[in-house]
Write a structure and sequence with these properties.
Layout lengths: L1 H16 L10 E9 L10 E6 L5 E5 L5 E8 L4 E7 L2 E2 L3 E3 L7 E3 L2 E2 L4
Parallel strand pairs: 1-8, 1-9
Antiparallel strand pairs: 1-4, 2-3, 2-5, 5-6, 5-7
Length: 114
């Protein structure tokens, strides 16, 4: 009887700990989206930049033919600023908060100028 109880307790503990990251292990997430002009046409070769608010480090990505961009495995406990430039024009800045707990966040960017 004690063996059954021990097995049951261990099974419940394993289920509870299954999705919990180990302490000290940073959480990572992904940021994807599309870049479009004011007519909602995709912008190929736009330069999307993401700035880590803690380090002020900036990483760039050039959009594909469909205007898509992707930043994989960015730190989860950090706020980010995201914007793009295209042929000398710059979009507004969008924020990705560390409190946005989506593992796969999406921010679509639109160029509002004429």
């Amino acid at each position: 009887m004690n063996t059954r109880l021990l097995v049951a307790v261990l099974a419940v503990m394993a289920l509870l700990l299954r999705g919990t990251p180990l302490s000290g292990q940073p959480s990572l997430r992904n940021l994807t989206g599309t870049v479009q002009d004011r007519h909602h046409e995709p912008l190929n070769d736009a330069v999307v930049e993401i700035e880590n608010e803690n380090t002020k480090g900036v990483t760039s990505y050039i959009t594909d033919r469909s205007g898509r961009y992707s930043f994989k495995r960015i730190q989860g406990e950090v706020d980010y600023r995201v914007w793009f430039t295209y042929r000398g024009q710059r979009s507004g800045v969008r924020e990705l908060s560390q409190f946005d707990d989506h593992h796969n966040a999406t921010i679509n960017l639109v160029l509002k100028s004429h």
